[in-house]
Amino acid sequence: MAAASDVRILDQRTPQERDRPFLPGMGRTWLLPLYDVFTRLAGVRALHQRAVELAGIAPGQAVVDVGCGTGNLAFAVLAAHPDAQVSGLDPDRAALRRAARKARRRRVSLTLVQGYADRIPAEDASLDHVVSSLALHHVDDDSRIAFARDALRALRPGAKITVVDFGGPVHGAEQARQPAHGHRPAHALRHLPRLLRSRMAQNPAVARNLGDGIPALLAGAGFGDAREIEHADHPFGRITFVQATRP
Ligand SMILES: C[S@@+](CC[C@H](N)C(=O)[O-])C[C@H]1O[C@@H](n2cnc3c(N)ncnc32)[C@H](O)[C@@H]1O
């Protein structure tokens, strides 16, 4: 008989953090109900699956998905490794509630933690992987640095962090129209006007990721071998897959 699914939502925010602002997944809280439909049409599921492949997660390992939103990257991890110990971290309670409902429907176990990227819910050197998709560009400068340092703290030596987000070489954004690794990301949205891509690239939050923004962030925190390991060209901009190892 299949093990019962264990789904819980924990609140790790301090009293001072109750009113701390954050940028929700769709930019506006009231747009959350559209998030899953929108990202599915935008081909984000393929990015999640690729991130899981690249992360190289092994059965039973402990994984935290930072900025998990409605849980889709966490579910991609669990689809590949049903016995992985997966937690999702996000400040958005409504998104976590959606993730919890989906986890129960799928009968998977998932711990969801309401909190911010700068405090990863794990003991020192206890995690096998930190993963994160499309979340870093929602996090402000100080918190990004704190996130990278805290990921280093929480990972065991030799463990990896895999970050998927807009970013990478600036010129790459407008060059290739074909995906670098062969999957065609986006269906109906593939023909969205170029304007959308350039608006996304001009977004100051996304700009922090451009160039070597994400590898430099991770290297600065003390990770080893921080680098882009793959990229995909999405209608909204260049998506970089960055990986680094806890020395
Ligand atoms: C575009 S969504 C990505 C959600 C999910 N990772 C995915 O790939 O579908 C960005 C997420 O980052 C979360 N976020 C915003 N600020 C954050 C912070 N300081 N720490 C952690 N997550 C944050 C948002 O609430 C939102 O769920």
Verbal overview:
The chain is α/β, with parallel strands linked by helices. The protein is 32% helix and 24% strand. It has helices at 35-41, 44-55, 72-80, 93-106, 141-154, 194-202, 204-207, 213-221; strands at 7-11, 62-66, 85-90, 110-114, 127-133, 155-166, 224-234, 237-245. The chain has an eight-stranded mixed beta sheet. The longest helix has 14 residues, at 93-106. The protein is globular and about 50 Å long. Residues 172-183 have low confidence and may be disordered. The structure holds S-adenosylmethionine. The site of S-adenosylmethionine has 24 residues, from helix 3. Residues 22-25, 39, 44, 66-69, 72-73, 90-92, 95, 116-117, 133-135, 138-139, 143 line the site of S-adenosylmethionine.
Helical stretch tally: 8
Poorly predicted residue ranges: 172-183
- Give the distinct bound molecules: S-adenosylmethionine
Strand order of the largest sheet: 1-4-3-2-5-6-8-7
Order of helices and strands: EHHEHEHEEHEHHHEE
Give the oligomer, counting copies of the same chain as homo and different chains as hetero. Answer: single chain
